[in-house]
Amino acid sequence: MGITERKEREKEHRREEIIDAAQTIFFQKGLQLATMDEIAEAAELSKGTLYLYYKSKEDLYLAVLARGMDILYDMFSTVVAESEPIAKKIAHLLDAYLRYFKEQRNYFRMFFFFDNPQVHKQVSEEMLQACATHNMKVWNIVIGLIREGIEEGVIDHSIDPKQAAVILWASSSGLMRQMDREDHYWSDVMGVNLEEALRRANAMILASMMTEGAKTQFREAVV
Amino acid sequence: MGITERKEREKEHRREEIIDAAQTIFFQKGLQLATMDEIAEAAELSKGTLYLYYKSKEDLYLAVLARGMDILYDMFSTVVAESEPIAKKIAHLLDAYLRYFKEQRNYFRMFFFFDNPQVHKQVSEEMLQACATHNMKVWNIVIGLIREGIEEGVIDHSIDPKQAAVILWASSSGLMRQMDREDHYWSDVMGVNLEEALRRANAMILASMMTEGAKTQFREAVV
DNA sequence: CAACATGAATGACCGTCAGTCATAATTTTC
DNA sequence: GAAAATTATGACTGACGGTCATTCATGTTG
What we know:
The structure is a homodimer. By secondary structure, chain A is mostly helical. In chain A, about 80% of the residues lie in helices and about 0% in strands. Chain A is globular. The structure holds a DNA duplex.
């Protein structure tokens, strides 16, 4: 009696196909300008069918966003698994986030679009929960790595790992957002390389967090 | 012949009244959920009239945003005008930004909503230009203050004032965005005070930029 | 195999809303 | 005070998110 299971698989497969289509359209046009008719067209389904699988356009958007979080999680996991000194791993984590920004720009943008408070009206509780979980997994990696750094004496023990994580993350995100918006403006008109600014900012923050002994190690590991 | 001038004033006055109404509605509901009918109702005008004064809903939104930029500019100007040592003024500028975030939250949110690339379809060129100009005025204050700090030997001469400005701004903005979204989550679940994190981040970045001699002065001026 | 049952898929339809435009009201000009 | 010019109106249009009565495909039963 594998019929219900086969049906289940097919249903899951269809859900994935719909996300594929939605992703294509959302990446092209963004949440506002994408229409459900377009997505249905791309998925080769009728609009009504989309609503059998997802509660709303925003719900679909979050489903795509969750994929983006998975990708970032995988990239971060790879860094954590490295057998490198912790200082290097922390630097690599920041590099990985920058690489994510550059290689997965569309997903990165979704992160920022997501927190628009107006969006959360018609999203399903499960989808919101799923996104929160994925988000938490990413945070835990960052926090865990910093905690490890403290334990190994690379980062000062007076530092709160959670606070350090949010500082590094938010600072990086802020600069990447600037890069995303107006990198050209800053490089062409202002003569400022924002990527270099990002690296500098991270270096400054990290330097302020590290123990005296580790600073020399860090310098040669990163800069 | 003051008739055309009176007319001009009246027209400008009406434009302001419309922004007042739009601001009320936008602050309540945000760009997406606010409707032009509501704004017209609040302005005690017909919807058609709104379109005589502003090209689109987004245009109106930008008009409100420009006000928010003016307020920030005024706050920053006050700091620049202080007769305090430059290190203190820089610290006060960062304080002023935090105060803006806390006291003018609605405007602050608009900053982040603004750079949604999907929004810029039907906005007038003038409005976009006006916002860019206002934005630039704010940047110039930040950059100018840091440049002054370099000239006075408080900030290291190897620092590029524009780069320093974008680092401080983006880092602060990133953390404030986090505060705006999920301050409660961070304080209640994670036990992290994001405002303290912001102050820490700024202190770390500033400390990395300052000359050795100025660091002691800064410590007593800010922390 | 035919009658029936299940649930997936459809697309016409609905309500809402940004934006338009023909018409009306008001003000200015002569 | 009539014609002209300017300003205001709100019914209307098209587009879009979301719904639902109906159709269709597949599996079950006798």
